[in-house]
Each structure stands twice: as structure tokens, then as C-alpha cells.
Amino acid sequence: MIFFDRKKIISVILLFAFIAVCGWFWRHREYIPFVSQPLATGVAPFEYGVSRAAWAGENGMDIFKNVISNWKELEHLRRENESLKTEQNKYSEILAENIRLRELLKFKRGYTSYHLSGASVIGRDYGGWTHTILIDRGSDSGLRKYMPVIVPGGLIGFVSEVYINSSRVQLLLDPRTTVGGIVQRPASRVVSMVTGNSGNPGYLAIMSLPREADVIKGDTIVTSGYGGVYPKGIVIGTVEKVNNEGSDGTQSAEIKPAADFSHLEEVFVIMDHIQKVSPESITVKPPKREPPMNPNKQQAGDK
After folding, report:
1. Pick from 265, 269, 266, 236: nearest CA to 160
2. Residue ranges of the domains in the chain?
3. Are the beta carbons of 152 and 274 closer than 8 angstroms?
4. Cα–Cα distance between 84 and 241 in angstroms, integer?
């Protein structure tokens, strides 16, 4: 056991001595060529491998850092792009609203015969037998039932229900709605009743016209002013088709509305009709105004 231990000790001492000698030779390799050359040749692959590993590790770390940096920058650019898209959509909506409101203001200034109250559409109800919208003006703004509602394109309907701060507007497209119309063409001036067209949604209809009535395609239909609800002369629409094949000796017509009902965002309610009079007739007692007729033909018999 002692001998074995001595052999181990001797082996360790010889190993350290060898390492020391190798170190001395390495430090003085320039002066001992026969030692330096073999050592350099033997160590060269190891040095090359270590240097390549160090270079690869350094470059790998740089690449990894660049990937992380580029990923963060890409994420930042992506969020910035989304923010810019949101801002662009917001500005586009503001621009569209500004253009639309300018047109509405111009329209309102041109209608000096009416007191107009602007309102925004806040709800829609387009069913098979009901076509109504909800606006953000009510009794607190002075709205009353049966007030006409228009847009720059023309007539769209009347106020059918009034709440405190909102109202429901029954559109001309509603089959329950009826309005007195007259052909604007001077040679015709045919008076008729215009209703919502249940057979062709999106269009209006004139029913039971006499066969000899002078109504042709392209005629403009405006309100007749009869009934006291709608002022005279508001555009309703244009005759698109005349059907004179009725077996009862009558004819009918389809009317394309002047207003674009698919893009209703703001509307005007006619609050009152201003009667312009000359100065000398101011003292004349104004004529008695009849109460307006109910423009809803389904309720015409209501009290």
C-alpha cells in the first residue's frame, strides 16, 4: 500500500516537472527552434479551434443581439403603423364629416322659407313592413308629431313618434306612409298620392292613376302641399316606370326616391313654415290654419 502511494506521488511529481519543463520551453521557444517548432505545430490546431470557437461565439452573440434589437424595432414599427392607420381613419372620418356638414349648412342657408332643426340618425329599423329611423332630437328641442323631415336630396318622411330627447321618423319607403304628390312638369301637373312600394322595396309608388293621366318616365314628383303636413314643392323622386296595363282602366308608376335612404346620417326637421308677407298686409288677420292630416294612411281614420 505504501509502495503504491509512493508510485502515485512520484507520478504526480514527474507530471508537474514535465509541465514545468514544457512551460519553460514554451516561454523560451524563440531561442530553442528544435523545441518551438514542434510545439507550435502541435498547438496550432488547438489555437485555431479555440480562436474559431471564440470568433463564432462572439459573432453569434452579435447576431443574437441584432435579432433581438431588430425584433423590438419591428414590433415598435408595427405598433406605430397601427397607430398611424387609426389616426388616418380618424382624420378621414373627420374630413368626410366636415365635407358633409358643409353641404348641410349650405343647404340649410338656402332654405330660408323654413325653420330647420338639424338632427343625427342614431338608429334604424328597416323591416319588411316598417322603415323608420331614430333621431337625436325630441320634445325638448321643440319637435312635434307629423313634422316633415328632409335631406338635401329631398323628402324622407315625417316625425311619427316624439320622446323627450329623441324621435322616430317614418320614412317614405314605409308602405304605411302616404304623401300628396304632383308632377312638376308644367304640361302635366297631375296630382296623385305617393306611397311606399311594398312590392319593390327601395322605390315609391303611385297607384290608381286614370289611364289618361299625363305621367311619363323621367317626370319629377314634388309634394303637392295638400293636407297641411308637407310644404309644397319638396322633391319626392323621379318616375322610373309607368305601368298602364291595369284591367280596371287605371295605371300606376314606380318612383325612384330623390333622397338616398341607404346613407342617412344627418337630417333636417321642418319646424314651421314661414309665411312671407308685404309690409302693408301685416295688419291683415292671418287665415285660420287647419290641423295637419295624418300622413300615415294606416291611421287615417284615427281620431
Report:
1. 269
2. 115-273
3. no
4. 49
Looking at the DSSP assignment, which residues form a beta bridge with residue 119?
267
Rounded Cα distance between 157 and 295, Å, is 9
Cβ atoms of 207 and 195 within 8 Å: the answer is yes
**How far is 194 from 192, CA to CA, in rounded Å?**
6
Q: How far apart are alpha carbons 180 and 233 in whole angstroms?
A: 11
Name the residue with cell 530553442: 32
pTM (2 decimals)? 0.62
- Nearest of 187, 192, 224, 191 to residue 206 by alpha carbon: 192
The one-letter amino acid at 115: H
Phi, psi of 79 (to 5 degrees): -65, -40
SS3 198: coil
Q: What does the DSSP assignment read for 267-303?
A: EEEEEEE-----GGGTTSPPPPPPPPPPSBGGGTT--
Along the 303 residues of the chain, how does pLDDT read in single tens digits? 444 567 777 777 777 776 766 666 666 655 555 555 565 565 566 655 656 666 666 666 777 677 777 777 777 778 878 777 777 777 666 766 666 666 766 766 767 778 889 999 999 987 767 899 999 999 999 999 999 999 988 999 999 999 999 999 999 999 989 999 999 999 999 999 999 988 888 899 998 888 889 999 999 999 998 877 899 999 999 999 998 876 677 899 999 999 999 889 889 999 985 444 333 333 334 434 444 556 765 544 444
Q: In 10 A of CB 98, how many CB atoms?
A: 10
Class of domain 115-273: mainly beta
